[in-house]
Amino acid sequence: MSTDSAPWQQRDVLSFSEHSLRSYQSLLGRELTAPGSLIERAARLFEADYVVLSHTAANVPVYNYGNALALKLWELPWDAFVAMESHKCAEPMAQEARDCFLQEVETQGFATGHSGVRISASGRRFRIDDVTCWNVYDEAGTRIGQAATYQQWTFL
Description:
alpha+beta, six-stranded antiparallel beta sheet
């Protein structure tokens, strides 16, 4: 069954959204969405006019969230996006810079100001700028992934 119509309503997605929002507020000292219930905030996050995406903390991280704008930018439906290894979003020559940025986030908790070129499913290249990335922690303080947000991109 496809979950493309309202993926943010899935229990595991709601849970990760809650962890992501809480981690963002804790690490950066500000809210990513307006206050409200978890359902309201998850809906706002999914429909936001800025990109939000996240990947797991696995050795080879896989995307586990992309809001509607991320899905549009990557030209993928939800089910395909959340099956993609996150390193596949960047060109091979950009992998080292991406990996260094993610390592900085892992070590420091968050980082801002990243830029890079990404590739959509159709091969369309776009530059992302002023990316904020943060670690996502569960209630026990275990890092369960990383999330990122940005408002600036340019098709190349």
